[in-house]
Amino acid sequence: MGTLLSGRWNRWIVLVAVWMLAAGGLPAVKTAHLTGTFEVDDFFRFLHKFGFQKTEKHSQKDTEWDTFGYIYGNITSRVNLTVPVTLAVLDKRSFLEYYANRNDYDRDVACQRMFEKLDKIVYSRACNPHAEADYLRRIPCEKGKLCVDEDTRENVVPGSQFTFVISDPNVPRFWYVSMVACYQNVSTCQWHHYDYRKFHTDPPSIDYDITLVNGNPNRQTLSLFNPLLFHFSFDQQNTLE
Q: Where are the domains of the chain?
């Protein structure tokens, strides 16, 4: 009896979703949508932990078979920073040591320790051009333009300044989003604390608007088989099925 009711309920959800799409769209669903302000003098801000689903082997970007995860949005400031600070999107293994090193009293040392191991695996056009891990963005980004680490408009979700594409063919995993007032000197490749007192009278603030989703946000209407799960972290998806 329970299985029969569950089957009827799932069919009803799909029928309602299809009808609402035809009528003009789905209702708002719970999303990982992050907005706020990062004060540079706070040094570190943890933003969110999100579970991305396992990437299917047949997954292809920008098709109905797209099962990649996406993190995208806009990060700007009303003040020009002398050098950009850092947005980091890390898996659990990378995040734990990075996070543990944030509390060193000497913040220059904290920055160096936080990024010491990441430097070996994370792509940097100036300092590690042969690496493949795409974990960092220099922020803030100039209003109306892509972030400096985005070199191809086609790879960025429309209306956004940056996009991370999360791919893991083995298992679903949590990813951790944070900001830190550290910058990499592109001449020496050393990390330093952005001490605003050297550049500004008052601490600058950085405004962010970030979305995290399972599945390509440009292909949402193709997810008719389960439209209510599109924006959920994988651990939340399990509670709905």
A: 37-56+65-236
Cβ-count burial of 13 within 10 angstroms (0-12 exposed, 13-18 middle, 19+ buried)? middle
- CB atoms under 10 Å from CB of 186, counted, come to 13
Instruction: Give the dihedral sign, CA 18/27/60/175.
Output: negative
3-class state of residue 233 by DSSP: coil
Q: What is the pTM of this model?
A: 0.78
Which residue, 194, 205, 192, is CA-closest to 75? 205
In the numeric block, which tokens belong to residue 37? 């302000």
The per-residue pLDDT for range 106-141, each reduced to its tens digit, is: 999 999 999 999 999 999 999 999 999 999 999 999
Closest CA to 46 of 184, 180, 140, 161: 180
Residues in contact with 114: Cβ distance below 8 Å, sequence separation at least 6, in sequence order:
98, 101, 102, 180, 182, 191
End-to-end CA distance of the chain: 17
Cα separation values, 108 from 96, 114, 184, Å: 19, 10, 11
Torsions phi, psi for 235 (to 5 deg): -70, -30
Q: What is the pLDDT of residues 186-204, one digit of tens each?
A: 999 999 999 999 999 999 9
Q: Cα 57 to the chain's mean position, in Å? A: 22
Spatial neighbors of 189 by CB under 8 A, at least 6 apart, are 119, 124, 126, 127
